[in-house]
């Protein structure tokens, strides 16, 4: 004899399991649909972003290349000026070395204007035990004049290095443009960067660009930051530029 209670409970269990499976399939289908929608939206967003990238026109590229030419000419002019000034400063330093008092050990020395201190050509102070300061002619070049010459040379050498670095930036920008397509945004970024880091002396020789107050202030601060003794050491490390 069939136990109806047991029979109905089994049927109810199977029915509940079937409902759970059906709900799972429905939920899985809905999840797949949502993922598909998200994927489609993402693809649409990426496509829209791609459409927003505006490539630079041939005219814009030619205009930028014309700027590079002007910057290059200005940089070369600045380097030539820098070299001329270096030649003058080096000649003045050599003349002072030739007129300096020479110690027995071969060191050339310079007395301060008040006659209380003496320094050799390397910036090392000479003591009274090593040398009688009275032996140095008062007409000989002073430490102030010699150290100032070394300071000027150190500043010019530092400026020259900056000009060479800027020249390399110009070459890199020209190479990037010659590679082919470039966006307006990247072209503008290149232009802005070259203007931002342009040395003050290059600005002076670039048509339509004036030396900014910031660049003048920076150059002055850099020059005044080098002490005479530091300038001596810097000059020792840096070979003479003929």
Textual characterization of the structure:
- By secondary structure, the protein is mainly α.
- It has two domains: 1-52; 56-237, no CATH class.
- It is 69% helix and 5% strand.
- The chain is built from seven helices and four strands.
- It has helices spanning 4-52, 58-99, 143-178, 184-196, 200-204, 213-224, 228-237; strands at residues 101-102, 108-111, 118-120, 125-126.
- A four-stranded antiparallel β-sheet has the order 1-2-3-4, covered by helices on one side.
- The longest helix is centred in the N-terminal third of the chain and has 49 residues, at 4-52.
- The radius of gyration is 38 Å and the shape is elongated.
Quick structural gist:
The protein is mainly α. It is 69% helix and 5% strand. The longest helix has 49 residues, at 4-52.
Give structural attributes.
single chain; 242 residues; disordered C terminus; 2 domains; mainly alpha
Query: What is the number of E strands?
Result: 4
Low-confidence stretches: 213-242
Backbone structural class: mainly alpha
Largest sheet: 4 strands, antiparallel
Number of domains: 2
Choose one word for the global shape: elongated
User: Widest sheet: strand order?
Assistant: 1-2-3-4
Strand content: under 5%
Rounded radius of gyration (Å): 38 Å
Instruction: Summarize model confidence as the mean pLDDT.
Output: 81
Secondary structure tally, helices = 7
N→C terminal distance: 121 Å
Fraction in helix:
55-70%
Give the SSE order as H and E letters: HHEEEEHHHHH
